[in-house]
Amino acid sequence: MGGGGSALRVCADHRGGINWLSLSPDGQRLLTGSEDGTARLWSTADGTCCALLQGHESYVTFCQLEDEAAFTCSADCTIRKWDVLTGQCLQVFRGHTSIVNRILVADNQLFSSSYDRTARAWSMDRGQVAREFRGHRNCVLTLAYTGAPWVEEATAGGLLVTGSTDGTAKVWQVASGCCHQTLRGHTGAVLCLVLDAPGRTAFTGSTDATVRAWDILSGQQLRVFREHQGSVICLELVNRHVYSGSADRTVKCWLADTGERVRTFTAHRHSVSALKYHAGTLFTGSGDARARAFDAQSGALRRVFRGHAFVINCIQDSPCDFMNAALSLFHPYWNLIVPHPQCPFPLTLQGEPSPKAYLLCDFRLSTLPPV
């Protein structure tokens, strides 16, 4: 079993739990969204806070950082766009009538999902709703987008995929707002979804303890991945392998094309709430307040990272220059955040999370022993 890893830095300026983080495409800046109703921009080089983004009237649920703008969404039913240099709010997007829990910037478009049972596409310039995707019978929790060339040919525009607590996922034509397919088969809430690289297959995880693969064009269910004994909370798709993190305290690795389970990662003492794959290492975050690094090929535990007090909800990597023997290398840091003492997607999906943790920690990948 691997030894422990210690935090390089702790960023503790937020006055409430950190719900999400996002890295800029160049890896130079980090954006965090908090229970205290603010977002903060940080330098990944030294961990200093570069800007405080204030304006939301309730907690920030999610955030995404682009090259020149930051986007946040909140329980105040709004989305905000911010200037990353000045911290000034550039645009407020209003229209949702309940908590906005996810946003996605893709192909110069802004998408959002909400507890008001809708997903929406927004005009980036005017801040107005460009398209409303209505049809789910309960909260819309997660979303993904594909604008692959085959999609353009088949549907005359991109496709948005949404997952809901009504037990379905839906595929929407972005250009028209029409529902292209409804993916039925789960018997519980859809908590997470990912698309494969071609954008043709969607993988969904649910409180029914299964992962399912779907053809998003035809709506056909391709495969069911069974073996988990608890809700599937998070998914990661890498090199035709699907990694699923579950409330049963395990991660399972499946062959995406056949549904065969090839590996199980154990050692967690609580639900697995976050996954990140990097260069042969699978990183996990858990409700036991630990992050772990596993050898993705063997399943062996390589390192346990300690320092948090509550569940780890998000893992991201940030490159920084590292010089060794006159060779320029990129050296990843793993940034781990803690929002709540519960699973990040409460199975009842009722009530609001309470602030518990305030810390963002960085762990250096070089603390891992060689494989």
TrEMBL record:
**Keywords (A to Z) from UniProt:** Repeat, WD repeat
Q: This protein's superkingdom?
A: Eukaryota
Q: Coiled coil located at which positions?
A: none
The record's listing under SMART domains reads: WD40 (SM00320)
Q: What is this protein called?
A: WD repeat-containing protein 86
Signal peptide, first to last residue: none
Classification lineage = Eukaryota, Metazoa, Chordata, Craniata, Vertebrata
Alphabetized InterPro entries for the sequence: WD40/YVTN_repeat-like_dom_sf, WD40_PAC1, WD40_repeat_CS, WD40_repeat_dom_sf, WD40_rpt, WDR86-like
